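Training component of the fellowship. As part of building independent skills, the fellow (R.M.) carried out the full modelling exercise for a liganded target. The chosen ligand was pyridoxal-5'-phosphate. The inputs are recorded below so that the supervisory panel can assess the work.
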Amino acid sequence: MVSRAAAEAMDAADPLARLRRRFGLADDLVYLDGNSLGAPPVTVASALAALQDEWARDLIGGWDGGWWEAPVTVGEKIAPLLGAAPGQVVVTDSTSVNFYKLLVGALRLRPDRSAIATVEGNFPTDRYLIEEVARQWGVRVDERPAAEAASIGSDTAVLTLTHVDYRSGAMHDLPGLTSAAHDVGALVLWDLSHSVGAMPLSLDAAGVDLAVGCSYKYLNGGPGAPAWCYVAHRHQGAIESPLPGWLSHAEPFAMADRFRPSAGMRRLLTGTPPMLSLRALDAALDVFAVVTMASLRHKSLALGDLFIALADDRLTGLGFAVITPRPHGDRGSQVSLCRHDAADLLPRLAARGVIADHRPPDVLRFGLAPLYVRFVDVWDAVERLATLGEPLVGAADSGVGPETSPGISPEISPEISPEMSTGISSDRP
Ligand SMILES: *Cc1c(COP(=O)(O)O)cnc(C)c1O
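Fellow's submitted model of the complex:
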């Protein structure tokens, strides 16, 4: 069993430990929900204040002072995290909307094909949009078990997958499935919402056609930060968005009667960019200039290894099951546990200073954002969960940790005040 002192020693030896200071996280908070909403970079406030100054000073002239280009310039800051050469990423709209645009774009690039392929258990927004696009375009949905993703048929227009499963943290083989799709002439559309910012990605090298992802998870862009989309250079001349707007026009200010798509990635835009949230995201991305994605992945896996080892020691005997795959190549940056009372445990864990989340019916997710999660956070989370998860043996002998008043059983203590449980709902992205 790894001791807390050993976890502290891991933090002391961690070259990334100093980065936690860049985020507004209380020292005693164990924040393991960065896979759902990243922590706030402290520089966002000054970045927004600078934007307010520009707005006050330049007024509408601000659009000529860099705002107009922001979807592209911020996209270029994300591109290296994706393994993408310049000119293939823009920041715009939400992940859901971008997914719609690229899914329809893919069907139009393969007009002779009749199926959209995906796997069971894909993220709800992707599934709903796949169904809807299939209905609009008269194609079939080929939803198959994950193990059969590589054997899609040659009627497939596009294979679309979420790289890291939001529930279990299981990770697909991105290069392997991309080439399997290409082998039958299909395109791939990857949803990288739970990957970007937590691991190196090689979209260009893998030959990926299309990708989308969130900016408010491991990229820390802030609640509702605009999402990004990637279109490989070779498709940019031909891809057609189903949501053309004046910003995607080749000459927006010509105010032409007929649509003519812009060259390059601007054709994936629709309307006016959300400058406040773009500027916050821009500031949040600065941290990636001082780390390598390889070092982030290394730490993320070490945090996961520690979590799984401690869970084996302390939690599996209490009826918890680790549902995240153990091999490094098969998991993302979260560890998920199953137990029947997961929904009840979550607010009680929050009352003990550990923020995680719950997915129905019985999954507890622990996001291990390597920029700010500490090894002691993992240790404390498992220990507090073990204390909560133990069968109740009576108020006097409950093994209550120091975070609860002495002598009060966690079962009867008033730890779940309404304020504490507010916002710990299970329906966040
Ligand atoms: C979080 C998440 C989304 C969220 O999409 P929004 O449009 O930002 O709400 C989409 N896809 C996946 C796989 C996600 O994990």
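The panel noted the following from the submitted structure. The radius of gyration is 23 Å. The chain has two domains: 4-41+291-422, 66-289.
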